[in-house]
Every structure is written in structure tokens, then in C-alpha cells.
Amino acid sequence: MAESRPAAGGAHAGIRDDLFDAAFLRRIEHLTLLARRMASSGQRAARRSKKIGGGIEFADHRDYSPGDDLRHLDWKVYGRTKRMLLRQYEEEEDLSVYFLLDRSPSMAMAPPGEPSLFDRALQITAALAYIALGNLDRVSVAPMADGRARPERPVRGRAQLFRILRTLSALEPAGRTAIHDSIRDFLRFKPRRGLVVLISDLYDPDGLGDGLRDLAARGYEPMVLQLADERLFRAEIYGDLTLVDVETGERQEIWLTPEIVATYREVFEELSARVESAAREVGARALRVDVATPFDEVVMKIFRLGGFLG
Amino acid sequence: MIAPFDTLQAWWPWAAGALAVLTLLYLLEPRRRQVAVPFGALWRTVLERAESRRIGRRWRRFFSWLFLATCTSGLLAALAEGPLGLRALRERQQPPATHTVLLVDVSATMATVDGDPGPGLLPRTRLELAQEALDEIVADALPRERFLVVAAAAAPRTQAPWSDEAQTVRAAIAGLRSTDAGLDLERALRAAVDAVRERTMPRVVVVTDGGPSTTGFVVPESMRGVPIRVRRVGPEAAAEGRLVDNAAVERVGVRAAEADPGRGVVTARIRNDRGVATRLRVLLSADREGQGPVDFARAESVVAEQVVELAPRAVQSVAFADVTLAPGRFAVQVRPADGAAWRDVAPYDDWGFGVAARRRKVGVLLVGRGNLFLEAALLANDGFDVRRLAPDAYQPANFARSRRLGHGIDVVVLDQVDAPAPDGTPTWRFDLRAGQHGAAGDAEPRSAGELAVGDDEHPVVRGLSLQDGNVDQVRPLTPPTGARVLLRERGGVALAYATDAGVRGLVFGLDLLETDLGGRYFLPLLVSNAVEWLAGEDEAVVGPLEVGRPWALGLPVAAERWTWTEPGTPARAAFASDDALLASSEVQGIHVWRSHEGFEIARPTILPATEQPSRVSPDAAAWAPRARAAHDAAPRSPWPAWTILVVAVAGLLLLEWALYQRRRTL
After folding, report:
1. Mapped to the 3 state alphabet, what secondary structure does chain A carry?
2. Which of A147, A167, A174, A27 is CA-nearest to residue A98?
3. Of B34, B38, B44, the CB nearest to A203
4. How many CB atoms lie under 10 A from the CB of residue B563?
């Protein structure tokens, strides 16, 4: 994992400048522009609540029922058709976007000087959060570890970006991966319904499936972002090795050969397939990205995947 | 004989330690690198899928350990047994083994009983006599001597294979039985020579009665190079109650006299193998470059002779006293006395050889009031250990018999000192005063005339020239009887002389400071010659010892460790046996040892010399150097050490290659 380097002071105080420097901010600003352009070109600019209520945007008609407010009666329709229909308006409300961020130690493994999955996850989270804030959505980060995922207090408006960045900068890898437990813990706080972006290496496919089902059942819209590390398939050493699980400490003796590494890739692909299957089962979108992929490119992929921009 | 892998007995602690370390390394798994992985469960699935828990993989580490342990053991064995190993080192440090074929005539005639064996003795067959003789040979075996017992009749037959165990050889000898066949000696000899030719220090001892079936002892040329000795039993040896018509020199010792190390005593131990009293001539020969009987048998080499009478089968020491040790090499020969009716049947053991030992550094005590010329001349010789003493501190009694008492003073030089010479210590006196030391009739000092060397053959002045030498004053001396005049005036008056009886001494009737000799090269030569002669050394007593062929015994012999150097063979340490040092020339079969009597050289030395040499042995071909046997043909491990080494190294290389293949990065 790259070493955390909080900035010295000012608005950037407490923000890791190795991840969230000025260039990063310029790139996410650029991403926001791209997001608007994409929205104006056919995609809806902002997510809308499906709740029908007292907004100003017309939504639909329905038959009048005794007791309905006559102010909402569409007289023009009555004049033409003699049918009593009530005008219904969409009730605009803030969309909540939650980032369930895996901070287990497996996310933090990286060769010296190279970004880890965790670093990349922080950058992606920050970029998506900024776009969501620009879209007047409510944004909350919920770090996952040891079966817990307490959401931070949601924030709104672009001005809250630095708060988000500070929150992300303060995160350190810890705990063990337990996706299902973490989602259940997240739901225990009864957050408002909204988009739940799960960012993890997803080395817990069974827990993922159960967790996604729980989210969908509660009316949340899950999105799965699986971070992968191709470097794992480029073994630098072969021979007699002892593999130590960074989270559990479990040891396994192995005579590592190129054939074994190839088998490892096969198993990993199967795991990814299970992730996709679990997401598809609940109608969620899933995306697998490699750690080497720049974060803005990942964000663009997410845009193209749909669902995030509304 | 060194049994195969017996040197591992000395290595087993190391081998056990290496194996323990290897096992420990496998237990501790220090070479197993630990690698952190993000998701162990995924790898567990991988392992299960890759069948990495198959028995072969599970036991891979055990097989790896077993393989490395085998390689390690092989390397240790190779190191211990191989050409670079301890076994080879031990063999190099040991003298080469002597290989002796005991070729025993078991023809029909060996069952014969010859006459009366003597009072109190039971009649015995020739074969029984042969067995007795063979037992003696085995009893007196050299260290590491190995025997092959061959029974010879119409065809030779191996009675016992090569063995250095006396008990085994004796059992084989005891099992010999005479046959009804005749003896084909040539065929038997050929077989014996073939069996021993390629081995180190070979020889063949034939025990036969020389009966009518013997085809003769003329050995073909192809057999030459292997000493063949014949010991007879039967009518020739047993006639008239004699055992063997043989006299032998068992041992020769050279010992310098304590008072006069230039002279000494040569002792010889003479043995009479005959059953009757025998008169023997014992000749002492000295030769500076003598190498063998041919050199020492020359008339000019014989320096002394004694006639002794030895009792039947007796051993007696004969001493030659007051022998000049300058030649360094001595030989003692024993012969039948003139007019004797018997003939010595074993001329080879009639010779014994001895060497005078080199002396230590000569200790010189210079007593005088200061004479830079004399001191410089003494210090010019590195062989002198010079100490200075003022005349007032000089007490002759303190240096009496100094050499004998080990005070480190071998020679005393009195330079114009009015004091007597120490009793029993060689002394060089410079004195101008009459009546102090010189013989009666010494005159008062007077002016010197022309000088000349008196006895230019004397070691002190040999090769020196006094031409144009100037001496201011001399004291004419009257040498005592027997003294040799070294310097004369033209007028015939001696001004220096040497005495050589009892304790050596020099008297110079001059004062070096009153001459111009100090500025000439004459003086250091004179001083060096004089002191060395006084100390008993005319020249270096023992030079490189050459016998037969150029080989050298690394002297000084005073050292406890000797080194043999021979052409074609690596230098090696001499063999030490108990209190004696025994060295053997592999090429020549010559043995040297040290005893309390001095240093001795002989061939074939300590064997009971009742053997008769074959007729072909005395010629030069028998002493021609042979190429060293490629190896000691003793039985060895069925797996030669080098094969173990090769297999071990090849295995390690293969392993390393396999690991390299595994370690390749993608």
C-alpha cells in the first residue's frame, strides 16, 4: 500500500496528497463535465425519485377518488372528456449514494512504489462522490471491515468534497473481509434508500451474493465494482514457498510453478464470474477493473455501464 | 591395508553433524520463502485443483531431503576416500606398502628329511624347515608389508591371497603340503613376478630345496626389476649341521666422539647364521660419495678391518674406534676370513651402511682483549655462534669438556691470553710468549722471514696461499710428535701447528694484529677452516644422500620430521615408527632409520638376511628405477571414490538445474 501522506494544512488538511492532489481534482472536475455532457446527450441529467408527490414536474393522471384535493383536478381534460382525472407530480427528493468501501488488508497489497487496490478504491470513490455531490446527491462513505460498515453522515453539495476526501484519507486497511456481515451492519443503520456502490476485491463471493440480495430486498440499488490485480498472475518467484494469507494468517506450503499460477488465474476468473452472476441475480451492475487502470478511466467505464448518472 | 571407507570412521562426527544440520534446515524450512497472498482460500482451491496434495508432491520435501542427504553423504565419502581425501592423505603420508610373494616349493623333494638336524632337534622335512623360515620372514615383516603365499610345484597355486595379517599368512603357510610333482621354477617365478610387478615395493622370496627338478634360476629379462631372493632349505643348507652358510651385517651405526666430533666410532652388528663358530673379516669403508657396494668395495675406500670370531648363530657388535668422520658415508662388509672353507650364500646382507650426522652450529668462545680482524673473520661464517669473553673473566675450568657437557662451546680461541686452554675442549691459541702453551723448546719471538704453508693438505690451510703475506713477529714453535705443521718460515721453522690426537688443537706463534693478514681474504678462510676443523668438520659431513639413483634424504637428520624427495614421486614425510624414524625409498627399496646408535642406511635392512639373492639381482638392471606403481593394488571399495564424487557432483548439478528451471520468472 502506498504510504499515506496527509497534507499539511488549509482546506487540504488531513487529505492524502499522494492520492488527492491538484491533478486529481482537475481530473475529477473534467469527469464531472463529461458526466453532464453525457446526460445532455440523451441520458437524464439527474437521478429522480420515483416517488409521486408534491413536486412541480408533471408525472401522470389518475382517476379522481372522493376526498382527493380538487385543486389537482385537470379541468382541461374534464372539459374535453368529462372524465375527472387528477394531475400527479413527481416529488423530487435527494438521491443517496453510499460507497461501501472494502478496507481489508488484502486491498492494501502492492509492490513498493506501486498503487494498491485500496489506493485505487479511494480515488474511484472520491471521483464518484464528487460527481454525485455535483449532482446534488447525498453522499456517504461506509468503510467495510470485520463485518462492519457504519455509514458516515451523508453530505451534499460540492463544497463537501474535501470532507469526503478527509474521510477517505483517514482510512487505513484493517480487519477481515466479510461482505455479507458488513452489508447487514450497513442496513442496521437504516440509511435512506439509494445507490449502494460496493468497491472491493470481493474475495468473498458467497457473502457478496447474500449481501446484494439483502440490499435489493430493502429497496437499495446496488452497484458492484470488483478491483483486481493482474500482478498476482505474474509470479516473480517459483519453487518451494509458504503462502501466508494476509488477513487470516493461514499458511499453505506450495511448490509454485507456472502451471499452478495458470490454475490460479482460472480459479480467479471463476470467482469473477460468480461475482457477475450474483450481481445479475439482483439486477445490479457489476464492473471488474484492474488496479493498473487509471481511476478516471474506471469512472468512465462506470458511466458507460449506466445507473450512476441516473 | 586401509579397509574401504574405514577413514569414514574418523569422519563420522562430521558426517553426522552435516546430516543433522541438513535435517534441521529442512525442519526449520529456512529456505522456504514466505509470500503474503491476499486470499488464502483461493490458493487452497488452486492447490486442490492442481492436485498438489498428491502423494508425490506431499513427499516432495522428503525426497528432496533424501536426495540432498545422499549427495552430502556421497561428497563426504568422496572427500574421505577420494584422491583428495583423508584416505589418500594417509596413504601419501605412509610409506608405500611392501609386497612380498612367498613362493614356496612344494615339490616332492620338499618332503625329504636331511640327515641329523643336530643335538636335541627332531628330524624335519624340508617343507617344515621352509615353513619355519617363512614364519620368520612374516614375523619380521616391515610395516604395511603384505604377503601373497604361492605354492609352487608343477604349476603355481595361490595358497593365500594378499594379506597383511600375520595370522592369516601363517595359517596359509601352515597349510602348505608337499606334492608328488616336480617344480617348474620358471613358471612359478613368472607367475609370482606378474602378481607383484605393478605393486609398490615388490619382491619375491623363493623358498626351495633347489632339488633336481628345479629348472634353474635364470630369470628372463621380462622379470627383471623385481628383486628375487632365494632361501634354500635342504642338503646345501643342512649339510654338516649348518643351518645356513651366511654371515650378515645387521646394522651400522656412526657416532661422533664427544670430545672430537670430527672423529667417532662406527659400530656394526654382525650375525653368524652358521651352526659353527666362524671367523669373519669385517671391513669398514668410507667414501664421500659412496652409493653402494661397488663404491665402498674399492680398495681405497677401505679404512679399517677387523677379524672377529663369532659363536654359532651369534650376533656380535664390532666397533671401529677413532674413525675420521669426514667422508660422511660408511659401509661395513663382512666376509669369510681368509682361507675359510665355506662360502657365504647371501652376499647381499653382507653390507650395512651408515651416515654421520651433521653437527649443530659451532659454538666459538673468543677470549681476548679485542681483535676486530679475528672477530670479523669469525662472524663471516654463519655456522659459528661466537661469544666474546674478556681475559679477566675467562676461567678455563668453566669450559673444560664444554662440548661434552653441552655448554654450547665447541671451540675456544685464545688471542694473546695468558691462561691455559680448557681441558677437553678444542682450542686455538695465538701466542707470542714462550713457555705458555707451546712444546718444549719454543723460542722467543723474533722478526719473521718469508712465510709458506707447511702442509697444504691439511684442512686448515688447504687451498690457502700466504704469498706476499707479512708477519711482523713470530715465535718459532717446535711441534710435538705427530703434529702437522701448517705454517713455516722459509727457514724451516714452524710457527703454527695442529694436533689431532685426543682433542684437536691449533697453536699459532703470531699475533694477528702484528700481521697484514687481517686485510686479506686469507683470514676469514683460514679462520673458517680452522674452527670447523677444530669442531670436527673438515667439510659438510653429510651432503645430499644419493644411492643408486638421484634421490635425497632431506637432512638435517637432527630434525624429528624427515622428508623424502625422489624423482617422479611427490615429496612425502618419512614414516615414524615408535622411537625410530624409518624412511623408505620406493624406487630403490632402500630404508633409513635412526636408532640410538646413529643414522643408518641399509637395503633391504631389517629383514632376517638369511635369504640368498637370485643370480640376476646383483646386476644393474635390478637396481634400475621403476616407474612408480600407479596405485597400490590392494583391494579397494567396489565403488571407487572418484565415482562417488562424480555421481554426487552430477546429482547436485542436476538438482541445481532443475531448481533453476523452476525459478525462472515469466
Report:
1. CCCCCEECCHHHECCECCCCCHHHHHHHHHHHHHHHHHHHCCCCCCCCCCCEECCCEEEEEEECCCCCCHHHECHHHHHHHCCCEEEEEECCCCCEEEEEEECCHHHHCCCCCCCCHHHHHHHHHHHHHHHHHHCCCEEEEEEEECCECCCCCCECCHHHHHHHHHHHHCCCCCCCCCHHHHHHHHHHCCCCCEEEEEEECCCCHHHHHHHHHHHHHCCCEEEEEEEECHHHHCCCCCEEEEEEECCCCCEEEEEECHHHHHHHHHHHHHHHHHHHHHHHHCCCEEEEEECCCCHHHHHHHHHHHCCCCC
2. A167
3. B38
4. 14
Among A182-191, A256-265, B107-116, name the one with the lowest average pLDDT: B107-116
Partners of A118 on chain B (C-beta within 8 Å) are: none
For the entire predicted model, the pTM comes to 0.40
Who wins on pLDDT, B196 or B282?
B282
Inter-residue contact B69 to B118 (CB < 8 Å): no
- Identify the H or E element spanning B185: helix B185-196
Instruction: Provide the 8-state DSSP code for B273.
Output: -
The backbone torsions φ and ψ at residue A138, rounded to the nearest 5 degrees and listed phi first, read -90, 130
Instruction: Judge whether A229 is closer than 8 Å to chain B, CB to CB.
Output: yes
Within its chain, how far is the Cα of B209 from the centroid? 34
Q: How far is B40 from chain A (nearest CA, A)?
A: 5
Flag if A241 and B32 touch (Cβ within 8 Å). Answer: yes
Beta bridge mates, B415: B430
Q: How far is B83 from chain A (nearest CA, A)?
A: 36
Shortest Cα distance, chain A CAs vs residue B55, angstroms:
13
Please determine, for the modelled complex, whether the ipTM score is greater than 0.90: no
B295 touches B301 (CB < 8 A)? yes
Contact between residue B205 and residue B102 where contact means Cβ atoms under 8 Å apart: yes
Mean pLDDT of the region B348-362: 70
Q: Are B357 and B254 in contact (CB under 8 A)?
A: yes
Q: Which of B29, B141, B162, B88 is nearest to B572 (CA)?
A: B88
User: Would the CB atoms of B47 and A245 count as touching at under 8 Å?
Assistant: no
SS3 B374: helix
* Residue A195 neighbours by CB under 8 Å, 6+ apart: A47, A95, A96, A97, A98, A220, A221, A222, A223, A307, A308
A111 touches chain B (CB under 8 A): no
Phi first, then psi: what are they for B428, rounded to 5°? -120, 120
Q: How confident is the model at residue A295 (pLDDT cuts 50, 70, 90)?
A: confident
Chain A stretch 60-99, residues whose beta carbon is closer than 8 A to a beta carbon of chain B: none
